[in-house]
Protein: Membrane-associated protein, putative
Amino acid sequence: MTTGVFFVIAFGACVVGMLGTSADEWLISTNALYQTNAQVLAGYADWNTILDNKTGQVHLSRFFMTTGVFFVIAFGACVVGMLGTSAEEWLISTNALYQTNAQVLAGYADWNTMTSNCCCIESTNPPDAWAVSERWICNNGKVIERGRQSVDGSTSLPLRAVCGVAPTNSSCVISTTSGGVPYMNCPSDVKAYYVPSQVTENAYDYYF
Structure:
């Protein structure tokens, strides 16, 4: 993106420079009727001065032509590169209908691998069904939205803090099914500690 801005500015400066070069004015200096300084020497003081200035104009013209071609090629390559950049893919991992490895872990093998390759922030605008959610932004270009507390009060926050990697209770572990889907595995006495109406079974299975 920064490279694109640089080339746009540079290309614009090149165009402005070329537009600022005045068109050639053709003079016939061998006409006996028009033997004036303006006609014969184009207004320059003497023959040596006109030679020096014409040489400079030739070099300047070549410079703008070469620079223009270079920046057109560079700008085109930059545009192709930006068009080839894939957009982020957003995944809702707490939908019970789509509990697949690709949907829940963005294709990573397990929870630990996913958290090692993704960074997390608390969502400022959770999906409609959720009062609290977290967003995992991953190295593979995918973004996982995990609901943590629903609008009806069901919550998994006692099991794991927002954006936390490990369970709050050390007796719990985050396991993985044969299909590559994670779930919170807690002993029965730990489950009995939490209020079932708040921390439901779905919290352990889908949105821990």
About this structure: The helical segments are 2-19, 37-40, 47-83, 101-104, 111-117, 188-193, 201-205.
